[in-house]
Amino acid sequence: MTSVKEFRVAEAATETAVGRGRFRFTDAYSVFDWGQMPDAIPQKGAALCLTGATTFELLESAGVPTHYRGVGDADGPIHSLADATEPPREMAISLVRVPELPHRGADGYDYEAFHATAGDNYLVPLEIVFRNAVPVGSSLRRRRDPRAVGLDRETWPDEPVELPEPVVEFSTKFEERDRYLDRETADEIAGRASVDRLAELARTVNDVVTERAAAAGLTHQDGKIECYWVDGEVGVADVAGTFDENRFGYEGRQVSKEVIRQYYKREHPAWVGAVSEAKERADEAEVADWRPLCEREPPALPGKVVETAANLYTAGANAYAAGDPEGSEWFEAPSLAEAVAAVEEL
Q1: Chain-centroid distance, C-alpha 4
Q2: What is the pLDDT of residues 87-133, one digit of tens each?
Q3: CA–CA separation, 157 and 147 (whole Å)
Q4: Residue 63 — left, alpha, or beta (φ > 0 → left; ψ -120 to 50 → alpha)?
């Protein structure tokens, strides 16, 4: 199981053939790489499944290869969203191999061993990140100067800023802590998958999601994809175009998991600081798992925050699935404008 999705295998991938499986989207959430947090957010899983399936079907129409096969619940028939009668929680997917990535202590991760056992299909051990804007909480502000991403200024402003052209970056996928990479290192880690093709796919997905978001009254700030390699073809895996994988805005306010991240930063800085300290200690000790070194557990969210987050996910999903700011009737939810306004009261 991932931190927020249950993973079910119907037919495992082999060295020579892809398999079949399903994601079941739960109401769990994760922030700061912690894994599953103490609370559940009602209807979050269905909202993510709906937006992810919407994105995959848009990508299919655009000719982009993906592992998506349709939606359906409890091992029932697989179908498109057009034939769904309620928000789906399960997504049918094709499976590829995910080799073990050994950690060699001071020598780091052994990607040669990973690729040596990959066979004819594998999940590329990278996340490909695309950015149209730089929100206040973006890690890009810590890592790069404004001029390096095309902005004519020396320092980052206190408010979100749009980029003149989308920026594509690469980070690790299977390491205990995400690590941003230069293009040469990303190319080495990608194995047989072309880093140029990965970047091209990311830009196409970005275009599709950005267009859909605009139709829904949202601005698309940034997001990421994961990809597979199968017999020379690279396609989009995992899930894309959701309020966890992407950051969206509505009239200058966040419509994404970033709302919860910022709440923890504001209301529980001691826990956020303990997470950062644990990661630093893990680096110093040259160990992969930093969580046992964290001296604090994450506090639970107040009921008001859970309710506000649930409304944000469902209202956003209604708008994105419909391609209309007035939304659809998938969920009983407030309007997107009302859901976003409630965030300001937290």
Answers
A1: 11
A2: 999 999 999 999 999 998 888 999 999 999 999 999 999 999 999 99
A3: 13
A4: left
152-175, pLDDT tens digit by residue? 999 999 988 999 999 999 999 999
Which pair of structure tokens corresponds to residue 74? 């409890």
Write the DSSP assignment of 160-190 as a string of letters.
-EEEEEEEEEEEESSSSS--EE-HHHHHHHH
In this structure, what is the dihedral angle of CA atoms 157, 217, 311, 305, given to the nearest 10 degrees? 10
Residue 89 belongs to domain with CATH number:
3.30.470.20
Residue with tokens 């004819």: 120
User: Token pair for residue 117?
Assistant: 């056992």
| Count of domains for the chain | 1
Domain that holds residue 331: 5-343
Measured CA to CA, the distance from residue 147 to residue 265 in angstroms comes to 28
DSSP 255: E
